[in-house]
Structures are given as structure tokens and as C-alpha cells.
């Protein structure tokens, strides 16, 4: 599939990201797979942050980046055919059960709080990565969640594979 087709087929969005290195790593992955990246403000850092730039290395010119003042502005930027897939550590279908579609936008929440219910309510579908070593409902006895950049890469690879993007 051509890079232009891949970009139209799958997009990444970060809702109010807080940690510059995570966003830099997500941007680097987006550049590698030619996936447009949306950042939804407020951000927990400046786009000039040295840690953000360091994590993205010299790949920032290769990132198709859009910054939106708020979630409403982000939603307005989407095409009618885009399906918004919320990515969360809980409350969604298993990653391997979801059938991704051309035009899907993968939405990831803040590193500290995830996607609030008010944003989850706007999602067409919620998906989660199955983790056999996950913590119990009280947050004890295992891993509470994956790092944002890792989760984004795992879900993007599965979605892109299903869609035949690479």
C-alpha cells in the first residue's frame, strides 16, 4: 500500500499528553509508519521541549502533525467516515477481537489518567491490549498499564497489519 493510502487509512491521536519523551516516541513511530499524529491540547509541555525533541530525534520533519486546541476542534477535523477507537487499559474489547477499518483514528489518553468518561463517550469503540500480568481491579498484583508509546506501537502494528498497510 502506498504511504498516502496508509496515512488515510489509520491515524493516531493523543488526548492531552503529559510526558514529552512519550510523545516524542509516539511521533517517531508515526513517522516510521507514515501515520498522521494529532495532539489534543492542553499539552503538559511545550512543543519546543528538549526532551520531546530528543525522543523524536531528527524525525520531526517526517511527522504529519496536527495540533488541536481542544477535543471539540479535533473532532471537527475528522472526516465523516473516520471511526474513533479509544485505547484504554480497561473497558474495551480485546485488541485481537477488534476488526479495524480504513479511516480509523486511534485515540490514546493521558499517561496519568487515561481517557476520561466524557471523551470515551465520543468513541465508536474501545479497545484494550490483553495483559496476562495485569494488576487486579485495586491496582495491585501486577502491571497497571503499558507505557503510552509502547501501547500506541502495539495497537498501531495490529491495526496496520489487519488493514494491510505494511
Looking across the biggest beta sheet, what order are the strands in?
A: 3-2-1-6-4-7-5
Largest sheet: 7 strands, parallel
The number of distinct helices, counting runs of at least 4 residues, comes to 6
Distance between the termini: 7 Å
Q: Summarize the amount of helix as a percent range.
A: 25-40%
Ranges with pLDDT <50 over ≥5 residues? 1-6
Helix/strand class: alpha/beta
Rough shape?
globular
- What is the percentage of strand-forming residues? 15-25%
Mean pLDDT: 89
Write down the Rg.
Answer: 15 Å
Query: How many β-strand runs?
Result: 7
Q: What do you see in this structure?
A:
This protein is of the alpha/beta class and 166 residues long. Helices cover 33% and strands 17% of the residues. The protein has a seven-stranded parallel beta sheet. Helix 2 links the parallel strand 1 (10-15) and strand 2. The chain is globular.
Q: What is the element layout, followed by pairings?
A:
Layout lengths: L2 H7 E6 L4 H14 L3 E4 L9 H7 L8 E4 L2 H7 L6 E4 L5 E2 L9 E5 L8 H4 L4 E4 L19 H16 L3
Helix pairs in contact: 2-3, 2-6
Amino acid at each position: 500500500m502506498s504511504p498516502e493510502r496508509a496515512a488515510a487509512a489509520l491515524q493516531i491521536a493523543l488526548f492531552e499528553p503529559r510526558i514529552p519523551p512519550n510523545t516524542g516516541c509516539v511521533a517517531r513511530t508515526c513517522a516510521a509508519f507514515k501515520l498522521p499524529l494529532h495532539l489534543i491540547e492542553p499539552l503538559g509541555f511545550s512543543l519546543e521541549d528538549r526532551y520531546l525533541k530528543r525522543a523524536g530525534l531528527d524525525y520531526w520533519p517526517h511527522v504529519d502533525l496536527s495540533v488541536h486546541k481542544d477535543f471539540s476542534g479535533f473532532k471537527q477535523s475528522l472526516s465523516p467516515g473516520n471511526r474513533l477507537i479509544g485505547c484504554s487499559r480497561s473497558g474495551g474489547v480485546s485488541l485481537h477481537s477488534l476488526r479495524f477499518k480504513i479511516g480509523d483514528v486511534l485515540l490514546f489518553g493521558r499517561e496519568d489518567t487515561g481517557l476520561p468518561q466524557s471523551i470515551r463517550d465520543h468513541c465508536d469503540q474501545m479497545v484494550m491490549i490483553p495483559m496476562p500480568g495485569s494488576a487486579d481491579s485495586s491496582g495491585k498484583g501486577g502491571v497497571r498499564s503499558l507505557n503510552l508509546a509502547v501501547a500506541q506501537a502495539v495497537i498501531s502494528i495490529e491495526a496496520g497489519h489487519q488493514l494491510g498497510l505494511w
